[in-house]
Amino acid sequence: NAGVTQTPKFQVLKTGQSMTLQCAQDMNHEYMSWYRQDPGMGLRLIHYSVGAGITDQGEVPNGYNVSRSTTEDFPLRLLSAAPSQTSVYFCASRQGPGELFFGEGSRLTVL
Amino acid sequence: RKEVEQDPGPFNVPEGATVAFNCTYSNSASQSFFWYRQDCRKEPKLLMSVYSSGNEDGRFTAQLNRASQYISLLIRDSKLSDSATYLCVVNLNQAGTALIFGKGTTLSVSS
User: Fold this and answer.
1) Which residues neighbour B11 within 8 Å (Cβ) at sequence distance 6 or greater?
2) Would you place residue B98 in the very low, low, confident or very high pLDDT band (cuts 50, 70, 90)?
3) Which residues of A touch B46 (CB under 8 A)?
């Protein structure tokens, strides 16, 4: 059982480049979300989705886009990378109010 | 006042010690509460939910005090493997779409 799978695990970008962080879950969870984790800041919610076709903004959505065309996939797009987006990104999913399952994280560096 | 506050530590304790972490939250309408554990450079994982009556899971005891708006985690007979960062998580709504993470408390258990 793969759970939540994120790719890539590591990425280095130059300022202004765009990229997509992929997230897939095989647990048929309706709720999926993206967090970023920075030193001294804790986990902050970027975007979330409560089902296919439904997305909403979290605490820090600027500079990121998401879409949810299927239950399984929830990609996070960085439109024009900035050094402030250097972070560790976690995708997470959950069914109902239960446990939040996280992917292993994607470490992004923007130069 | 920040929404979820934790003492960042680090807490350095010897094996076998009992250690307690506290977490305070600012929103009195918070619905549910959790402790997650995060190992170094890994994803967070659910340690335990926190129930109003208090709950225990082996060496771990979680308590909630709604009147004072704090949550606690007690670890008895600390093991080396307990070394990690412990995240306090508060859910602000019934739908579970407003999870607020504390910045975490770091525990280091030494032999």
Assistant:
1) B19, B21, B105, B106, B107, B108
2) confident
3) 99-100
Contact list, A104 vs chain B (CB under 8 Å): 42-43
Identify the band that residue B2 occupies on the pLDDT scale cut at 50, 70 and 90. Answer: low
Closest partner CB to A100 (pick from B46, B94, B104): B46
Measuring CA to CA, which residue among A50, A48, A53 is closest to residue A68? A53
- Of B5, B48, B7, the closest CA to residue B25 belongs to B5
The yes-or-no verdict on residue A1 having pLDDT over 90 is no
Question: If you compute the radius of gyration of chain B from its CA atoms, what whole number of angstroms results?
Answer: 13
pLDDT in tens, B3-22: 899 988 899 999 999 999 99
Largest CA distance in chain B: 43
B55-74 pLDDT, tens digit each:
999 999 999 999 999 999 99
pLDDT tens-place string over residues B17-32:
999 999 999 988 888 9
Write down the residue that tokens 């069914």 correspond to: A95
Identify all chain B residues contacting A103, using CB atoms and an 8 Å cutoff.
Answer: 43
Tell me the shortest Cα–Cα distance from A15 to chain B, in angstroms: 25
- In chain A, alpha helices (H): none
- The whole-angstrom separation of Cα A86 and Cα A109 is 5
**Residue A99: DSSP 8-state:** P
Q: A92 near A100, Cβ under 8 Å?
A: yes
